[in-house]
Amino acid sequence: MATVEAARQLLSGGFGRLGCFDPFLSNVNGVISVKSGVNNARKRSSVRAQVHKSSRVPHDRRRVGPFQGTSGVFHGKSYGNRLDSMSYNCQRVESLNGGTAEDQRRALLVDESDKVTSIPPNGTPKPDVNEFKVDPPLDQGNGGFGSNGKPAAAGINLDSSQKIKSSSIEDEAWTLLKNSMVYYCNNPIGTIAANDPSATSTLNYDQVFIRDFIPSGIAFLLKGEYDIVRNFILHTLQLQSWEKTMDCYSPGQGLMPASFKVRTVPLEGDDYATEDVLDPDFGEAAIGRVAPVDSGLWWIILLRAYGKCSGDLSVQERVDVQTGIKMILKLCLADGFDMFPTLLVTDGSCMIDRRMGIHGHPLEIQALFYSALLGAREMLAPEDASADLMQALKNRLVALSFHIREYYWIDMRKLNEIYRYKTEEYSYDAVNKFNIYPDQIPSWLVDFMPSKGGYLIGNLQPAHMDFRFFSLGNLWSIASSLATLDQSHAILDLIEAKWEELVADMPFKICYPALEGREWQIITGSDPKNTPWSYHNGGSWPTLLWQLTVACIKLNRPEIASKAIELAEKRLSLDKWPEYYDTKRARFIGKQAQLYQTWSVAGYLVAKLLLADPSAAKNLVTEEDSELVNAFSCMISSNPRRKRGWKKQILV
Ligand code: GLC
């Protein structure tokens, strides 16, 4: 049986979805079943009970890491002497490296007989974070901080006092990162979003966010600490198949959560034991109920990076992981009404997770989508059952890169072209295909666009171009080679030319410019957190340092990243590692910014590690692909009518 099908069937059989429908309704896809009138809270607890049935285990049992030992390659570690309590359920999970998708999903998710014992409430301490080995950073003064012991490189030209300062900031950052680690069954599985001991309200910043964990995970990978990333990948995979509904509506099975929390709860019927419970949020509790489209894409990107950095390919080869990749792809590649190869999403479906006028085809999602497609193409095992999916993936890659490179790109030449566009063209060979009215060119752009440089616009819809500069989308388009090499260099040229606007006192503005006045009212819904030059509306986010560094190193221009890091180093630690900064020049700590925000810490660390050992960046980027280049040039040279047959011509 095809693995995806097997998983689907298992899901339909194994997970009765609880919802407020007819008690006897149950459809073939397992979408609806069970009782009416079950509220959300019950629904969640019943699901978690399925997953983490637990019992006490004699306290002298020795503990073993959950995924340890599945292959000879993995550099897992034993936590044997750490704690008395142990998890049977976790042990079962670790032993999975073969079998069918059905076997694996079953064992991962629904074995009623297995029991977990977690930390007894009678005082066994939480794991000591220091037990998770993260070496203190090497002294910069002794030649750098390369994870492989290589000397510092990449154009950092610090004097010795700066070096000492920078190294103590790194020490602090590592300590903060370690302290933000979250444990499940006593094994590290992620990092909490913010860890400010003085915070009175944490909202959901006490959760592990998928997107926030990416820089943490990469920092650990670059440091040779693979367990936490492996655990994160496999446990979030479990959550992918979780029952998820909002007001009786269920999104697609491949969806990954935005975040999850590990709760330690008393074990039913046992006063002396507790169980650890993973409690995911797929957007059903998130502010604005936003869909985390980026989570699954980031998950694929991290999975690839894990394999590249650790050399352990056994994780990506697991049947359940292969199924997980395919489920994400199926969700993203599903046919819809759309005319464009870009992924159509609702507002707030990525790092900007609230209303900011980025619904439709925002660049950030397209860059992550492209990167995830490339990663999936690399990691999916060739098998008959995946042939159609693989073909659809390849077709989409070509169409997507063509579309973005052609239609999202602007520079002075293209702006001039748009300025003189004819409109209302009905024909196959219209120049102004999307019927853009030249009056849409905003006045700020006339000054912003340098004569040398360019960028990919934020969004493209019929008769609408969002000309705002979105940093993550542009930087990740460089990292993934969604942008051509020339375009990539031009983006960095623009960043250099517009340093005062995009960086000023703290790297890096999430987008430029901010929405103001009436436009702010209409587009954000008068969101008081997204006021001009704050938060997602032109605020500055230190976490973006790591993507900037990856992009700069890929293009062999690390000095741009070094300059940004030097700036950040002046303030990040003093300011307590804020989530974001406010004002046009990033002079204030964000009004509602969390302090000790983990991805600010991790973003900084990744940037430092990469600058010290630029060769490690190759594990995070994808190079231009000759198959795509050929396909791309075919498309450009074919006329619009002939283009209809291009897939057949070049991709079979
Ligand atoms: C904010 C950010 C989001 C991030 C979350 C946790 O909601 O917009 O991108 O994942 O905080 O840090």
TrEMBL record:
Protein name from the UniProt record: Alkaline/neutral invertase
Region (Disordered): 51-71
Matches recorded under Gene3D superfamilies: 1.50.10.10
PANTHER family: ALKALINE_NEUTRAL INVERTASE E, CHLOROPLASTIC (PTHR31916:SF36), PTHR31916
Biased composition, class Basic residues, residue ranges: 51-64
Similarity comment text for this entry: Belongs to the glycosyl hydrolase 100 family.
GO cellular component terms listed in the entry, alphabetical order: chloroplast
EC number(s) reported in the record: 3.2.1.26
UniProt catalytic activity: Hydrolysis of terminal non-reducing beta-D-fructofuranoside residues in beta-D-fructofuranosides
The keyword Cell membrane appears for this protein: no
InterPro entries for this protein: 6-hairpin_glycosidase_sf, 6hp_glycosidase-like_sf, Glyco_hydro_100
Alphabetical GO biological process terms: sucrose catabolic process
Role of this protein: Invertase that cleaves sucrose into glucose and fructose.
Species of provenance: Rubus argutus
Keywords: Carbohydrate metabolism, Glycosidase, Hydrolase
Pfam families referenced in this protein's UniProt entry, alphabetically: Glyco_hydro_100
GO molecular function: endo-alpha-N-acetylgalactosaminidase activity; sucrose alpha-glucosidase activity
